[in-house]
């Protein structure tokens, strides 16, 4: 969508959770144990991933045959919601907000259900968003990208529909006109198979439509077919879905952004009385929006179906255009607001630092004051979205339950007790967070401020923390949620808090200016948490429009108050559906003691909000995960015995578990095999007395590692990393033995280390810098300034970059035969780029004649910025580098330097 950022998005990649073991033919060598069996359960290369497809792949896709599909769907229905009362006089009750956000770090390789990475875009300011586009797509990873199910879950719980992305990129970034032609191809019956597949996928996965971003130049016939395809989608899509068109291509087929709705592009929005797209995103080039508004009215459409784009990807709240930029002379939005990449708050704006993320979220969506009532910011500043767009709320019925869980954290809590250690991210179970961030009124000298906190939680990974000075018996009120619920005398409200002496419930009701304050009954629960319960009899028959609290402490002192849970509605008997037919549908082997396990079960889901998964350990249930789905992947399950028992327990809408409707099944871990072992030396060409460090990479189950180096000092030694020296020149063999309870694996590397006398005249150096060394050929490069020859210049400010080849390669001619002892590669991270772009897999081969090649390095699973590969000495003139996986999950080569370590002579090797 924005050219200067396309390449960045195109290059994004993901670290696969499956561990790949390396094989180096001479340098880093491996001895394999017996091949792993399946144990009756299919073994997958990785955990379930979010979907990303090319057009031909879409035609062949169906949910029944896609093993990852059950993990990508959303079971959370789209909640109904209403507008809250205006918080300031500038808020519009008609204009809407479209968020086009990169909700996942990568197009391909995104875990379908979160994982252990806490720093993920767990967006919570849904009260200001009317539609979310899960923006993604690249010519190298896939251009048809539905939202991951966890994103849809969190959005739907807040009443926000979610769109998948169809992205046809510009030719400069890999776009192909044939992709567009395939997309709009009709079958013999006049149907659009691609459009049918889009609808099939959105229904199967449970999201709400598609954002069509067509920026590949095509001919007029294809452009006409695209408009017909949009009309076809309109006619066939379910009523609850929408199609959004990006102002890019015009009827000639050329990509010519109009920055307006006008006569040129109106046919992709409205054709006579026929709606072609439900909304249009107006490109950032807009200037005067009044003609677009007039054109929409002329076409019989609501001007607020148009979204004027503001690009905040690079500069966020420092962007030149601001929410005030689309206002008319009366201070009201001319059309609706479209924010492109508000995920700036986490990415460029915070560099994935979550403390900075929450501050940025306040600045972008609320204002510097952190209060939507404030109108202090001027039009020359970023005033925040709350300044002009009224809040919406899904609090429209009983029961309503929130644990203020944003869906990530440092540990997972259940009923106030820490149930599972370790960072996590799980947007599927994100709660509805407060409508107002923050509407706080401090009495007297109280100075409480609010923030999301990971320090403590009641359920999930977070809570709301209010901190600051408090004066004895002086209240601080906080308005939490806009609502539209009618109270009856039997209904109740409860709130769970910590660190506060008195909590009153503050309600606003329809038609009344004065709020109602209710006192409740307090009861101590777990770990310092207190539950206060209130009867709604005083407001029976009235419509509650907002829910808040008033807080008091008995002493004057600094306070730290945590809000852990808010529950609206009396707990009633709500029978949940039985969980049954639990199966283990797949596994990913992390290592020989650790597995990721795919679990699937059946349930009608009646009155069921989520499911909790437990592992039975010595008769006790250990919490492992929670989801709104009926499929889940348990990460990093460690073998304690050959089998483990897992339970799936339904949780009702009041947050209660029903063990009587749970199910369980026995899982069998892979049979333990003899350990695998890989050995490597920091160098294999050393002088007498020079220390050599030997490292063993072994299976996790390994209990001991013993080394034998005849002629070394010492000759026998134990440990994963050992250091030896040699008193005499010569070639030395290394033997390492790894043992576990299943047996032992021995690895022998013949004549692995060459030791020379200091008087021999041997000099180890970087052969890449010799004047005779040249990069003779390769797969390609992006431009003359990023040729493969820059991989040999010893300068980390230059690089070889190739984004056009599936498996980039280059060949080096040393000018004559030399003695080679090893290699050092400087990847993306070494040049200051993302470590996620570091080469993951590569081979290095050598040849004396440039025709007959011998592989000396096969590196797998690399994540390091700089990788070193020492090998047994070999004589060669030519060296070939082949990148099997040029990124952690992409194909763009980024090599900042390649050192070929050796000696500028021959005759050292005598074999």
UniProtKB/TrEMBL annotation:
<dbReference type="InterPro" id="IPR035986">
    <property type="entry name" value="PKD_dom_sf"/>
</dbReference>
<dbReference type="InterPro" id="IPR000421">
    <property type="entry name" value="FA58C"/>
</dbReference>
<dbReference type="Pfam" id="PF03644">
    <property type="entry name" value="Glyco_hydro_85"/>
</dbReference>
<dbReference type="GO" id="GO:0005829">
    <property type="term" value="C:cytosol"/>
</dbReference>
<feature type="domain" description="Ig-like">
    <location>
        <begin position="675"/>
        <end position="749"/>
    </location>
</feature>
<dbReference type="InterPro" id="IPR005201">
    <property type="entry name" value="TIM_ENGase"/>
</dbReference>
<dbReference type="GO" id="GO:0033925">
    <property type="term" value="F:mannosyl-glycoprotein endo-beta-N-acetylglucosaminidase activity"/>
</dbReference>
<dbReference type="InterPro" id="IPR007110">
    <property type="entry name" value="Ig-like_dom"/>
</dbReference>
<protein>
    <submittedName>
        <fullName>Uncharacterized protein</fullName>
    </submittedName>
</protein>
<feature type="domain" description="PKD">
    <location>
        <begin position="675"/>
        <end position="745"/>
    </location>
</feature>
<dbReference type="InterPro" id="IPR008979">
    <property type="entry name" value="Galactose-bd-like_sf"/>
</dbReference>
<dbReference type="Pfam" id="PF00754">
    <property type="entry name" value="F5_F8_type_C"/>
</dbReference>
<dbReference type="InterPro" id="IPR022409">
    <property type="entry name" value="PKD/Chitinase_dom"/>
</dbReference>
<dbReference type="Pfam" id="PF00801">
    <property type="entry name" value="PKD"/>
</dbReference>
<feature type="domain" description="F5/8 type C">
    <location>
        <begin position="755"/>
        <end position="903"/>
    </location>
</feature>
<dbReference type="InterPro" id="IPR032979">
    <property type="entry name" value="ENGase"/>
</dbReference>
<dbReference type="InterPro" id="IPR013783">
    <property type="entry name" value="Ig-like_fold"/>
</dbReference>
<dbReference type="InterPro" id="IPR000601">
    <property type="entry name" value="PKD_dom"/>
</dbReference>
């Amino acid at each position: 969508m924005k050219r200067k950022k396309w390449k960045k998005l195109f290059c994004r990649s993901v670290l696969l959770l499956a561990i790949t073991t390396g094989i180096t033919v001479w340098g880093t060598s491996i001895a394999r144990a017996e091949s792993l069996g399946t144990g009756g359960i299919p073994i997958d290369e990785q955990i379930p991933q979010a979907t990303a497809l090319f057009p031909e792949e879409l035609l062949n896709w169906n949910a029944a045959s896609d093993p990852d599909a059950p993990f990508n769907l959303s079971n959370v229905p789209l909640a109904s919601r209403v507008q809250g009362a205006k918080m300031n006089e500038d808020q519009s009750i008609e204009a809407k907000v479209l968020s086009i956000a990169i909700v996942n770090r990568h197009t391909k390789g995104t875990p379908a259900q979160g994982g252990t990475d806490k720093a993920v875009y767990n967006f919570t300011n849904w009260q200001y968003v009317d539609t979310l586009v899960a923006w993604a797509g690249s010519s190298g990873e896939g251009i048809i990208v539905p939202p991951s199910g966890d994103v849809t879950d969190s959005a739907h719980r807040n009443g926000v529909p979610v769109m998948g992305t169809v992205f046809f990129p510009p030719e400069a970034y890999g776009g192909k006109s044939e992709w567009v032609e395939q997309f709009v191809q009709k079958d013999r019956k006049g149907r659009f198979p691609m459009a049918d597949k889009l609808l099939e996928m959105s229904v199967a996965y449970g999201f709400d439509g598609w954002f069509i971003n067509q920026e590949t130049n095509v001919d007029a016939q294809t452009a006409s077919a695209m408009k017909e395809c949009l009309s076809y989608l309109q006619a066939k899509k379910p009523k609850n879905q929408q199609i959004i068109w990006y102002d890019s291509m015009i009827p000639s087929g050329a990509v010519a952004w109009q920055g307006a709705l006008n006569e040129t592009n109106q046919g992709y929005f409205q054709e006579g009385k026929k709606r072609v797209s439900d909304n249009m995103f107006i490109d950032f080039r807009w200037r005067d929006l009044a003609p677009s508004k007039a054109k929409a009215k002329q076409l019989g459409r609501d001007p607020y179906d148009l979204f004027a784009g503001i690009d905040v990807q690079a500069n966020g709240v420092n962007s030149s255009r601001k929410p005030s930029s689309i206002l008319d002379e009366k201070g009201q939005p001319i059309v609706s607001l479209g924010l492109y990449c508000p995920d700036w708050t986490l990415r460029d704006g915070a560099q994935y630092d979550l403390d900075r993320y929450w501050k940025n979220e306040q600045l972008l969506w609320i204002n510097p004051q952190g209060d939507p009532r404030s109108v202090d910011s001027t039009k020359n500043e970023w005033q925040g979205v709350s300044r002009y767009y009224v809040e919406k709320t899904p609090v429209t019925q009983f029961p309503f339950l929130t644990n203020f869980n944003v869906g990530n954290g440092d540990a997972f809590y259940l009923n106030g007790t820490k149930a599972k250690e370790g960072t996590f991210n799980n947007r599927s179970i994100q709660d509805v967070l407060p409508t107002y961030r923050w509407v706080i009124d401090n009495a007297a000298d109280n100075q409480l401020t609010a923030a999301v906190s990971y320090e403590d939680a009641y359920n999930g990974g977070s809570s709301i923390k209010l901190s600051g000075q408090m004066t004895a018996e002086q209240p601080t009120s906080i308005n939490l949620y806009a609502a539209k619920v009618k109270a009856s005398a039997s209904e109740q409200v409860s709130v769970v808090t910590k660190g506060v002496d008195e909590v009153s419930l503050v309600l606003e009701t329809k038609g009344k200016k004065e709020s109602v304050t209710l006192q409740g009954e307090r009861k101590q629960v777990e770990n310092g948490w207190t539950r206060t319960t209130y009867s709604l009899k005083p407001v029976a028959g009235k419509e509650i429009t907002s829910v808040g609290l008033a807080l008091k402490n008995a002493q004057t002192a600094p306070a730290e108050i945590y809000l852990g849970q808010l529950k609206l509605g009396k707990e009633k008997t709500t029978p949940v559906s039985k969980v049954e037919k639990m199966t283990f549908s797949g596994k990913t082997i992390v290592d020989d003691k650790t597995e990721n396990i795919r679990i699937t079960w059946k349930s009608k889901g009646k009155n069921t909000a989520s499911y909790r998964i437990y592992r039975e350990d010595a008769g006790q249930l250990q919490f492992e995960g929670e989801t709104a789905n009926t499929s889940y992947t348990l990460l990093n399950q460690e073998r304690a015995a050959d089998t483990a028992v897992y339970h799936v327990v339904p949780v009702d809408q009041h947050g209660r578990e029903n063990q009587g409707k749970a199910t369980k099944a026995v899982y069998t871990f892979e049979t333990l095999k003899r350990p695998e072992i890989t050995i490597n030396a920091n160098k294999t060409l050393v002088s007498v007395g020079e220390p050599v460090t030997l490292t063993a990479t072994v299976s996790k189950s390994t209990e001991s590692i013993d080394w034998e180096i005849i002629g070394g000092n010492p000759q026998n030694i134990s440990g994963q990393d050992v250091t030896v020296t040699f008193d005499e020149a010569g070639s030395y063999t290394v033997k390492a033995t790894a043992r576990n309870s299943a047996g032992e694996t021995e690895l022998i590397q013949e004549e692995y280390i060459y030791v020379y006398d200091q008087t021999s005249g041997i000099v180890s150096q970087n052969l890449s810098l010799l004047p005779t060394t040249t990069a003779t050929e390769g797969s390609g490069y992006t431009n003359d300034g990023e040729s493969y020859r820059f991989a040999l210049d010893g300068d980390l400010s230059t690089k070889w970059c190739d984004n056009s080849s599936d498996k980039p390669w280059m060949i080096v001619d040393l000018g004559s035969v030399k003695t080679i002892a090893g290699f050092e590669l400087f990847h993306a991270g070494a040049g200051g780029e993302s470590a996620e772009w570091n080469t993951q897999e590569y081979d290095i081969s050598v040849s004396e004649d440039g025709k007959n090649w011998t592989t000396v390095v096969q590196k797998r699973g690399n994540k390091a910025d700089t990788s070193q590969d020492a090998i047994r000495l070999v004589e060669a003139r030519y060296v070939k580098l082949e990148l099997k996986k040029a990124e952690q999950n992409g194909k763009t080569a980024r090599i900042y330097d390649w050192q070929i370590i050796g000696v500028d002579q021959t005759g050292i090797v005598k074999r």
